[in-house]
Amino acid sequence: MDEDALAGQVEAMRAELARSPVETVVANHCYGLFELAAVYLSQLPPLLDQARLAIDALGCLVGGLEGRLGETEEQLKDGLSQLRLAYVQIDGAQRAGADVASAAGVNGEGPAASDTPPDTDADG
């Protein structure tokens, strides 16, 4: 594709964008942030710091533009609430797992303790 054809396509996309209602364009960006957060939350292990930034960015848009997002606003608010709930649940589960692992190590329970050979000192 030559530069003139590419420039024509860019101009056509810009004209189409200019004809779109701005609340629709902003909502599309919000959906992108929703998907981004969901991708980070679904990783194994979840990438909570990255998910949190995407969720916070979505929250800034939805909260900061309250009353101006048109018919998609309620859907965006619901999606934001779902992401926040998922984040809290995943974070809580990770913390609980870490606490259990830490307690097992401190109490001498679990696989780490059973892997240690017993003391076989004949003098004792």
Helix content: over 70%
Largest sheet: none
Total number of helices? 5
SS class: mainly alpha
Shape: elongated
* Beta strand %: under 5%
The helix/strand series, from N terminus to C terminus, equals HHHHH
Rg over CA atoms, rounded to whole Å, is 25 Å
Number of DSSP-assigned strands? 0
Keywords:
elongated; mainly alpha; 124 residues
Overview in brief:
With 124 residues, the protein is mainly α.
Can you put this structure into words, describing what you see?
- The chain is an all-alpha fold and about 120 residues long.
- The protein has a domain at about 20-105.
- Helix content is about 75%, strand content about 0%.
- The protein has helices at about 5-20, 20-40, 50-65, 75-105, 110-115.
- Helix 2 (about 20-40) runs antiparallel to helix 3 (about 50-65), helix 2 (about 20-40) runs parallel beside helix 4 (about 75-105) and helix 3 packs antiparallel against helix 4.
- The chain is elongated, with a radius of gyration of 25 Å.
- The relative contact order is 0.09.
- Mean pLDDT is about 90; it is low at about 110-120.
